[in-house]
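User: quick one
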Amino acid sequence: MLTLRQVRLAWILVLPTLLVVVLVAGYPLAQVFYWSFFKADIAFVEPPEFVGLENYLLLFQDPDFRQALWNTLKFTVVSVSLETVLGLAIALIIHSNFRGRGLVRTAILIPWAIPTVVSAKMWQWMLHDVYGVINVIGVKLGLLSQKVAFLARPELILPAIIAVDVWKTTPFMALLLLAGLQLIPEELYEAASIDGASRWQQFWSITLPLLTPALVVALIFRTLDALRVFDVVFVMSGVNPATRTLAVYNRQTLIDFQDLGYGSAISVAILVIIFVFVLLYMRTIGKEALK
Amino acid sequence: MRRASRLLGRLFFYLLVIFVVVYSVFPFYWAVISSFKPSDALFSPDPSFLPVPFTLEHYENVFLQANFGRNLLNSLIVAGGATLLSLVLGVLAAYALGRLPFPPKNAVMYIVLSMTMFPQIAVLGGLFLLLRQTGLFNTHLGLILTYLLFTLPFTVWVLVGYFKGLPRELEEAAYVDGATPLQTLLKVMLPLTGPGLVTTGLLAFIAAWNEYLFALTFTVGDSVKTVPPAIASFGGATPFEIPWGSIMAASVVVTVPLVVLVLIFQQRIVAGLTAGAVKG
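Assistant: Done. Structure below.
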């Protein structure tokens, strides 16, 4: 009897959460799918008109969409690679035993905790073309021959945005990898050094293979995040076509252009792209990691 | 010779450590310094690395001229509300999923998990319509509800882990003493999940406090607008004049609470972050 009561209680307890899931995820998602087949503005000034797949066909012809996709991929590949390498380096540093490692771990949490909008603003100020501290130090140390307008030169905006993202999210990567490192049994290293393996050999034959599961998880998390990047790009360069990512273009279409139909089709495209990436990861590295 | 090379290695290692710390901390340090500099020292070709001369004028500007106090209050209401609501809903659901016989357990866990992978941007249009239809556009409650999209799944997922980790005997003892399942949850289990509540609450609060896209899109004017979109749109007297001093002062004000939280609870935060990811 107790069990039946418990099952009923379980339903009652889970129900509010399920309701929220339907309300803020299920229903809006259904709306996005639905309106992607219509020509409609988001305020419904004109009556919506069913257009079938027209919005999706437009995706393939729209050079702005293609550029946004390209920007997003460039951003994702470069930032996630840099974050992985840097994150691994920082994780290895914190993992090795030395005085003050607690301090380092606290220090790297600071960029993680700072709101993305604030970090974008801080870096915008540091990268200021005349008074920015990076220009001042760069010129003083002779690294820059003259002050550079990092945020005005089209070829430098995306690298600047990537630099901010790397600064902000490397800590997360480092913490995930550190957790992975701490799972590797110490005895393996002891055995390896008795057998005369160098630090470098130990890294390639013990650390890296055993770290793969943590690496895969961290990579998936970061890639999913990077593919939907909005905040840092929008704050640093607005809707500038040179850096406009899929998320920025999507919001611009939906809200600024009020184009509910085409904007919804872009949202669906983003979902599909993210889904494809998850599948790819699962198939290539995921399988090996899960063995 | 070997000792010399080991010493050199050690030196190199510590240089690396110093580099990592400076790289992580300097941008925030620079924001703090800049927020205390008078404008002529701020816009100097040879800026000083200490807040000399010192002024509070930017902080006065932020609070007296802009609606920043209002934005700060909005942030508190929205982030606090979203945290509280996701903790209450999360505890109830997580107890059922982690402790009670519940046939569709796995299905629900997968639905919740898929929500954590969900890009916010993909439901932006749908949520916009929902808020318009329900009259919740540009309200605190509307923003709180949309924030559950990213605070609730994580909270449920991590708390399920905490509930599962509690010893079976406690629960049984409570049942033997004649407690109902709900009493068992509130009086016996909940107090033991304290650390989990603190961790998930903190992470939910930080995520909501930092959120930008929804706050930008679902608010108009300053009555509900939170701090991130407010800082992003800070303007000067003319479009050409960017008030960097005030922007840095506002940035410091929103960031200091977070940095303090991180310093106090860093162990918990790290545990929560990695727990969420390892299980996810």
